[in-house]
Amino acid sequence: MDAKVEQGSADGFPGLIGDSPVMHEVLELTRLVAASSATVLLLGETGTGKELIARALHELSPRSTGPFVRVNCGALSESLLESELFGHVKGAFTSAHENRTGRFEAAHGGTIFLDEVDSVNFPLQVKLLRVLQEHEFERVGDTRSITVDCRIVAATNRDLFDEIEAGRFREDLYYRLNVLPVYLPPLRERVDDIPLLVEYFVELYSSANARPVLRVPEDSLHVLRNYAWPGNVRELQNYIERAVVLARGNTLSVELLPQHVRGLRPARIGKPRYSDLESLCTELVTRGVLDCGETATNMHQSVVSLVERELIAQVLRLSQGVQTKAATRLGINRNTLHKKIEEYELQDDVR
Q: Nearest-5° angle of CA 282, CA 286, CA 290?
């Protein structure tokens, strides 16, 4: 979710849209957490609205009159990030022609939001840990310590325990950041909010493009509810904008949605395309994957099983055999995954 785009309101909460039970939990926890000065760690997939919550934490806090400073740690190179966060003195490195104030100094009296904090390199994590513990640091190239008073809100879309196990993230820094964790649910876990979000984005982009506000029929909402939304609200936002721009009438019909959202195969550059099941099965028979004596129904089931087995195997490997993680990534519950593992004999991929 883009904080500059989604300016609706959920339960009297500025900047957020949603009325589902899980969103009510997030908003209630945000209100409770905002009153303190403790460090907050926002956990959630890309596009779930972590920056919106970070801004809400600031606006609802006693520091609301102070600055809100955002740093996208993943967008800066390792060499630039230290200078960006802590500043530098003239002559600290070749292009340091003058003293520069860092983001921590700029956030004094307010809130600093460290997005994609998992991207901070290991040596720089030591300096970040010191700020959390002692509220002081040195600019790059300086020996004078600077004391700063700002609240730290960090965010990540990764499992930090995995990063710790891989040696990329300090365990002591994790526990310093994880004082007040707030988990933001993916859109697939709050599908009841989809009609509200669609209504908002339709009105937003209809106005922006000088188009009539589209009517959203139930069959389109049904398709949107049943899509997995790996890109979460940001992905939904993009597809609604696309539909508004492409619409020729006053209805957001199913045909205006991307093929993969409708359950169809998207066009892939440089990839073979199959117009129907028959041509795909013919190709698989030629390769010896399927038996040419199978009926069309059996062929269809064989193709589905082959694809499903490979997908589950890949996700299990990506999740290092942890079934809970794999189930979450697949969008199914753990019991269903366990049955599929037994059905496809994938026990060797489970730890």
A: 75
- The phi, psi pair for 321, rounded to 5°, reads 80, 0
Single out the residue of 110, 152, 109 nearest to residue 130, CA to CA: 152
Summarised one tens digit per residue, pLDDT across range 151-164 is 999 999 999 999 99
Can you give the pTM of this predicted structure? Answer: 0.71
The SS3 assignment for 72 reads strand
Q: CATH topology for 191-256?
A: Helicase, Ruva Protein; domain 3 (1.10.8)
Ramachandran quadrant class, 229 (left: phi over 0; alpha: psi -120 to 50; beta: rest) = left
HSE toward the beta carbon, residue 176, CA cutoff 13 A:
19
Q: Using alpha carbons, list the distances in angstroms from residue 58 to 29, 31, 61, 325.
A: 14, 10, 5, 31
For residue 275, count other CB atoms closer than 10 A to its CB.
8
Strand pairing category for 151-156 and 13-14: unpaired
Hey, what are 72's tokens?
Answer: 């996208």
Question: Which tokens is 82 given?
Answer: 């230290």
Give ranges for CATH 1.10.8.60 in the chain. Answer: 191-256
Structure tokens at 286: 């030629």
